[in-house]
Amino acid sequence: MGTSLTLFKLYGIEMRVHWSFLLIVAYYAFIYSGSGANPLSGAAYGVLMILLLFLCVTLHELGHALVAKYYKINVPNITLLPIGGVANLERMPDKPMQEFLIAIAGPLVNIVLAAVLAPFAGLALVSAMNNGELANNTAAVWRFAQTPGLANLVVSLAALNLLLALFNLLPAFPMDGGRILRALLAMAIPYVQATRTAVLVGRLMAGLFALWGIMGGGVFLLLIAFFVYVGGGAELEAVESRAVLKHIHAEDALTPSAVSLYSSERVSRAVDLVMSSYQTDYPVLDLSSRFIGVLTRARLIQALRDAGPESRIVDVMLPADDVPTASPRETLDKLWERMMQRGTRVVAVKDGPEFLGLITLDDISEVFQVIGAKQQGAGGNRPPGDAAKADPSVRGAVDA
User: Fold this and answer.
1) Given 3.10.580.10, 3.40.30.10, 3.40.50.2300, 2.60.40.10, which CATH number is that of 250-361?
2) Residues paired with residue 354 on neighbouring β-strands, in sequence order
3) What's the pLDDT at 277?
């Protein structure tokens, strides 16, 4: 999503469009260029058509986002892609009913839009039939909806909103229907088991989408099948990771033998430690042993490049004010989620003013591997450092 352009903000949510969105605009301009009075007018109609359709997709995503914000879940942005939209939630809902309401909000928006447009679309169809422009059959109505014209556009948008709602309600996790299925299952069985079941159903649906795409449904169905398959697996890994980590407290993940650096030391001291141990992130203390910062692996490498090994640690460290803190009794699942939201790999664990130590993503990954292997058998899960690349707090794959 790094190549997305922010268009504007609405309700505190950045509305973004990915550069690849231009591909679908160009595609619609091309396929409609032969439909109008001339190629230019046909292409313009195609562009108008796709922009209005994605306005409906944006409203769909806003439906998800506003319900999420009602439950105090921050939504930093909504991004439009050629195959739909993505509403990014900073965390998943705490309760199955919340997830159910967030997931169903998007399709309900499309149903409302279809209902609003339906009377006008009905009038347009009746008028066309009375004028002899339209035969009374489904194929003729579909061709009418694909023909440039104001009445045709209304009919097309009404039909497409209804199709969007129905398609997104299919149980293809992590699409809306799959999330609704997971939420309903989670009301009766454990959350991890509900997720596994929803992912299995989603992968079956992804297979059907792929088959449909190969049989003539188009490349977009193949892309959706890919996102459903990969996105579902990534979220399952994240859910399994949280299930393991929620029983472990921050104080239990501290490394007793971790080495600290002092503000008066040189970067060369950290280089010596890195070469002789597995530790890569170091708390920095002043002469009174007060925690004042962290020398992370990234800052160490940057310091060696820019200033050399004789530069002072105090000049290149990450200041303590910029390091997130956690209490000793905070569970690792909450801590990991917060680290992903903040985009940091280190957290300082403090008991009041007393500094107890650092926890890094590497520490959490190691704890997960050991505890996960003990609980479920070695190799049963991937470490949270891997799963977090795809999730851990982003809602859903793509809403088509």
Assistant:
1) 3.10.580.10
2) 351
3) 85
